[in-house]
Amino acid sequence: MLADGRPLEAERRLEAIVQATPNDVRARLDLGLSREMQDDAAGAEEAYRGAIEVDATFAEAWNNLGVLLLREGDARGAERAYLTALRLKKDHAATLSNLVTLYRRNGDEAMQRRYEWRLDRVQRTDPFHQFMLALECENSGDYDCAIARYRRAIALQGEEHQFHFGLARAY
Known about the structure:
single chain; mainly alpha; 9 helices; 73% helix; globular
């Protein structure tokens, strides 16, 4: 439902899942995403923090919380969330990319370069990052680039990335 652009419907279903299985961190994370898609920052933050309360080692929830905090103007909180995510999952490409963006915005070139170096090393083998690059290519109209990146993402993907690559399979 999220991938189909139906966040309200997804939110209702995910709320039921969280109520039935309160320790389902993935459902809590997706609940946060559904709320973000509806511009409900407070609800999204509540869902991400709920996932973290259930499992403080869930790097994706820390990363998503960082994205939300940065969007809401809390750069310090975002940085703390991103760095926590990286302590938990040292080569998490999305978090590395978000840190690069944060430090670029803040004008901290040394930290920006530090994380760009790490991101560059990771991006070649991270299927989700390849998928995001494919989306950038597709959005810019470079379909040859998009096809190559989607194929690379599919070749690299593991079981945890199956959900993200439904659209890529069309290529």
